[in-house]
Amino acid sequence: MTGLVSAERGIGEIVLVDALPEFVVVVFAAVTHLADPWFLFGLLAVGYWFASDRFAAAPRRAGATAIAAVTCAYAATALGKAWFAVARPPGAVGPADVPTWLPGLLSAWYEAQVLSDGFGFPSGHATGGAAAYLALALAYDRAWTARKRLFAAAAVAVAVAASRVVLEVHYLVDVLAGLAVGVGVVLAALWLAGDSRVRRDDAAGRGASPALDPTVPFLLAAVVSLGALTVAVADGHTGEVVEAGIGIATGVGGAIGWRFVDGDEPAVPVRIAIPALAVTGGLWVGAYALAGTLGVTLAATTAAVVAVVALPALPERIDRLSASRS
């Protein structure tokens, strides 16, 4: 709701980052990609499809729960941006101050990183980064040690959050709120999925519960996104309508896709994953390219997420079909 968060919420951080050397800003422009939605969901999908029991007791359940948790985080971001409706720092509007020593191709890339539209609070990159890397650290609890996983997750999340301030597309309070929301949402999603550690249930030992069920977190993401859609439509925020719609489709698609999966499937064979990646990637690109047609965007997004989540069940179904025909 406009007024609850001030549009003039900076505390002098813009003056400080203006004094940074240009090459430092360029480095942070690259770092920010570590929390781009396409990168995070690609990373989560790879873990979900290919992780073995060396990473988690039930890698398919762990991976799907991580995807559901991050979907919830983006839904919370969409609701927060539509609700508070405050602008980004003036520098995000442009014109971009592109370093003269960057080659032409990199100049266009750099300009795309330092210019951004839409609302600024909370930061979607900070929220998504905190949620994704914490979810991965907690879900895949057999990799490294807990301390190393959490340290790595925190380091990447903080670096991404810092990049948004250095690029002047967010104020410091935006990214701090994003980090807090990301952590809180992940813990809530794991609790809803039945993680024994978050529920303080010692029956399953110190690791994540092998019976994680991402259905409720997926549905929660859809409900929160529906709330974001309602606020965006009521206040006339057309840009946030698309993001909220994609959140609804992602949550619903994830819940539907999980219905096809038992949760104990082996890793997805590469021969199936590669064409599936091409199909789902095409659907994602189409969903954003046709953002002006909300119905088509929702349908494409839902289909893509259903395919991603249901994919581990596909090899067995193909084998059964082949056996019945032979």
TrEMBL record:
Designated name of the protein: Phosphoesterase
InterPro entries: PAP2/HPO, PAP2/HPO_sf
Residue spans crossing the bilayer: 23-50, 62-84, 119-138, 150-167, 173-194, 215-235, 241-261, 268-290, 296-315
Keywords: Membrane, Transmembrane, Transmembrane helix
Domain Phosphatidic acid phosphatase type 2/haloperoxidase positions: 65-190
SUPFAM superfamilies, per the entry: Acid phosphatase/Vanadium-dependent haloperoxidase
